[in-house]
Design a protein that fits this description.
Shape: globular
Number of domains: 4
Radius of gyration: 25 Å
Largest sheet: 7 strands, mixed
CATH class of the largest domain: Mainly Beta
Number of helices: 20
CATH superfamily of the largest domain: tricorn interacting facor f3 domain
Distance between the termini: 62 Å
Number of strands: 23
Helix content: 25-40%
CATH topology of the largest domain: Immunoglobulin-like
Length: 633
Amino acid sequence: MNLKWTLLLACCFIMTHCKNGQEPKTLIPLSDMAIHTFEIKDPHSNANFNEVVVKHLDWKAEVDFDQKKIKARAEWTIENKTEATKLILDTKGLAIESVYLNGDQETTYTLLDGDKLFGQPLVIDIQNNTKTVTIQYQTSEHAAALQWLSPQQTHDKEAAFLFTQSQAILARTWLPCQDGPGVRFTYNAEVNVPKGMLALMSAVNPVKTNETGIYSFQMDQAIPSYLMALAVGRMEYQALDHHSGVYAEPGMLAKSAAEFVDLPSMINKAEEMYGPYRWGQYDVLVLPPSFPFGGMENPRLTFATPTIIAGDQSLVSLVAHELAHSWSGNLVTNSDWEEIWINEGFTVYFEHRIMEALKGREYSEMLASLTYQELIEELDAMKADGQWADTKLKVDLVGRDPDEGLTGVPYNKGYLLLRKIEETVGRDKWDGFLNTYFSTYAFHSMNTETLIGLLEEFLISENKAIADSLQLRQWIYEPGLPSNAPVPSTQRFLAIDELTKQWLDKGELTQVMKASSQWTTHEWLHFINNLPKDIGIDPLMQLDAAMALTQSTNAEIQAAWYQLCIVNQYEEIYPYVEEFLVEVGRRKFLTPLYKALMQSETGAVWAEKIYKQARPNYHPVSYQTIDQIVPWK
């Protein structure tokens, strides 16, 4: 098998068809890779998907901003694989009104007590001839997936806004479903919203507001529940090319479209590497600032934080990350949330490859170096906090919120493992494997054991030297970072280190100021993040006076700078920190800033004051994390 694979990589390639008749540069290798099936075991779902599985959803909903509820009817087409008499769906906080089989046959059901984390299992009595199950229900105004924004909480301050965040197990708060990444379904939807508003979903979308407020959607490619998405508000659209574009509030649209001008090129580069984009359209929706993540890879409609709109395209690697999810995650999906590294590690690797193809190796190595630095810092913090077991790639999340697994480990340690594989077997062979992997396992689930088997069969085989060099199982099943981890390096960062040393030794900023006029955001981050943590107030004041870092409008630079200033009790920046924390809801920024504030008596007083004001602006994903940091009553 190994010999055949080698010969095929060397000799047997086929060209894939690209959109509009264009021929991509990448060649896709033929191989004997085949689908390996396995039973999905999901510790975060109460659903009986191994007995009865949902296949298609017809969803009809009314969005009620006054009551902050969605009133809906979900009709599931099911496949009864075992002649089961019960269909069990995940719900959390849903008010179930009625359940019917095959459209008009009312049936009995039980909503079990459940628990605070996983919600209430909905147990529905079905029959052998049951093809569809229809559920009439309403969401709670406290549904964790839904954030209802007042006009004042939006960018334009003119109209209310709603958006969803279903990952990881929040889809069950607005849809009775089998809420795990291992279950996929197609869907159609009809959504009724207030007139003058536009509704968008992770589906085929309209580009203009209509007069009725009723919008229809279709998603013919099967997705897991965490990729169900809905946004409602005053939004407009600008195309970037024939199959990509940007949605945003009217006041954000022009600068958002300007920021993402390279998106069509990103898509082309991604397709050249790992095969055709399989989802048709690729659009980005720039959300109001309370969105808790940098981005969310909803198929056909990536949700993005406005904090990446820097005015100079310096933070668009986040869009490359979400685009990469169209292959790793959306196309080939982790079977459950303990396998999240298969989703995120591959995506960070692919993100860096896209940015290398777009901006060059030196640029992508700056991203990789920051990735490495962030991981080392996080590993140290997790060890100090007694979370060392969670630094494994395959993490134990039984009985825990899967959100606890969304540390930097699956992202950045996962990336470094894949980079190690590339450097060990060679980029051509690794790209051949990935190309075939994405093609073969498209719209299927993947778990760690199956992936290891594929890597051993097609890349390692019986080559003991490669196996010894990779230490694959140590990377995956043991905590920490193996000694063979790649250490990215870039001359641009080394030059900054030298300038920083000269400044700290001599107190003269002239050379730093001269060089920094040409720095990218990544160079600024490296500079700030590598200053001594106990640098003291005087050097910070010197930097601020010369470079106005406190007044930066780049969210990444702001967050890094503010954290360093808080640790050193440079209290003059606190009003700016307050404005930032009230305005921005991105958890990546909130968590370290609140933690830093809580380390001092003065800072803790500030943190509690700010949080009382800011918490209503945050999505539940964010405030449930910050509640554990700042005392909240």
